[in-house]
Predict the structure.
Amino acid sequence: MEVVFFIITVLTLAGAIAAMSLRHLVHCALCLAVAFGGLAAFYLQLNAQFIGFAQILVYIGAVAVLIVFAILLTRGIESAPQPLFSSAWPVGLGVALLVFGSLVFAIQSSSVAQQQAAPSAQATIRTIGSQLMTNFVLPLELIALLLTAALIGAVIIAMQEPSAKSTPMKDHAASAPIPSVPEEQR
Amino acid sequence: MVEAIDQIFVIAKHWVVGQFPAAWQSFVSVLLSIVPILMVFPLLFAVTTIVERKALGRIQNRFGPNRVGPWGLLQPVADGLKMLTKEDIIPRPADRIVHFLAPVALIVPSLLALSVIPYGRNMVPIDLDAGLLFFFAVGAGTELAVFMAGWSSRNKYSLLGAMRAIAQMVSYEIPLILAAVSVVMLVGSLSTVGIVEAQGERYGWLLKWHLFTPWGLAGFVLFMIAAAAESNRAPFDIPEGESEIIAGYLVEYSGFKFALFFLGEYLGLFAISGLAITLFLGGWHAPFSFLEWIPSYVWFFGKLSALVLLFIWLRGTLPRLRIDQLMNLAWKFMLPMSLINIVVAAVWHYTADWQFTGALICRWLLCGILFGAPYVWLGSALMGENKFAKRTYRFAD
Amino acid sequence: MPHPRRFRAFLKSNDRGDITDMTSVPLHYYLVVSAALFAIGLAGALTRRNAIIALIGIELMLNAANLNFIAFWRYSPKAEAVTGVMFVLFSIGIAAAEAAVGLALIIAIYRHYRTTNLDEISSMKG
């Protein structure tokens, strides 16, 4: 079964790297969707069916679509091709490599992380549901509140200011898709 | 004997699997679940296209295709050959890779969605614990495919069509899921098999389909409206309105890729009709207990054809909505009504232990008022400003 | 002809277990993948000039953390408590809200400055 693991790993990491380095923004968003799909496959391999499907539903069905919409709405008048990376890119890359190195070092030197055999854990829908309604009912309500707040907030932020001079066409498109994402999580 | 006919495909599969060595058996079993889907539904697609063209022809007072074969029945073959032999045109500025991947990305989720629907007793390709969630999750994947098609063509009509399609799909996904949530709530299971089995109990000779409850009836109507919008069927076909934006995201597709899009759209229609059957119409169960001798898969495919015919009928009779009407319907009407429907479902559930005579009528009345009052109020509030003038007819002399 | 009931059991055994256990892959494989994903997201968020790409990087980092939660839950001796799964469920919900608000902010900023280049949106005056 290691083969499956490595295939998914290559898919996910390649998608992530492409999403971070391609020139065209829409390509980045599509590669991001591939990376999200790979993560969902990881969750399925780890016996977390519900989370895997929720990942596809939320990230590919909503977040990726939202990003694509944002990219199209902010295209417009880009000036001549600019450098892709900011001027301080060596520092950023160095920090990222440092973080990766230290994380791998910590994982390799830990005794907990070397576990081979896993107990056959299963998160059935029934367990998740009853846990959501008993132990985790407060976080659930908070999430509902947060999503409602985010929904209203996103609409207000993206709503056209009365005196703003951007074209009405764009705003019509902006106000339609943005509220939909938090709504879907209910 | 009745059970043997009912289980004939299951028994056949078992027999075939038994012929292979043990190491191969699981592989063969999976293959035997996949191949029938890949064969039956494209075939059904071919039949549907000719039926649709014939029926639309009848509705519009013309003949429809009648040249190829007897009564024009071989038209799908001719269409298929035409599609296959046509030149596959890719616009020069198009993004070639994305343009190529878009039809594939559209058709794969549609096929995947078909894999969790129970087609008959013991006839479900894969019985997932979270089958319903799986269905909606893969359904969400089509949005990105539509965007890929529209964006990669580098054509303003296709981009506009794709944006319209995505806005519409995202909006109508919510009432669709909320209508399904009422079923999930009362059955207590996300597994499609579990939902169908829950509808197998009886009151007298009538089976307990969800359609025969007030919330189920309302939920079914809401679900079908949202399903028509999700699968871009008329009257919600503005993403590809031929008279407005020529064909939406399909403009720059030709030849076999166009055929794939067409196929994907119909597969999506079959999948969502199958889900409606699973959720509200009792899956493969017969409506009356004295009709249970008819095999379960016959019931399923009979209901499927009935729903497809309903969609064709709607397409022939209803005019297309405008985009703002479409969005208003989704957000101001469908969403509140589907939320109210969940409350109605809860009321129905908690009044289930009423024992006095006429309890059933009281429950129906209660639920009817709970659903009907907001319906009337919302309807009149939304229609308030534009009252239709009295219709006048002018006939040719 | 086999008896249908026996056959049903056979079907169950065949179709239920399609999502296989990956007991042969040790836990630290997942942790390394997650660390790599986190580093990629961090590098992107720190180096790219476009605000949307920076947001994508942040989403990737969040997902890397989610993968860690699920992996630890799967390999923990007390897997009946589904805390890891719950945490990821809530984290996915919050990430969706974050994406919606973040993108709305980017659109608002774009309206004002006509650019999504992070190097140019550095002034604190409107």
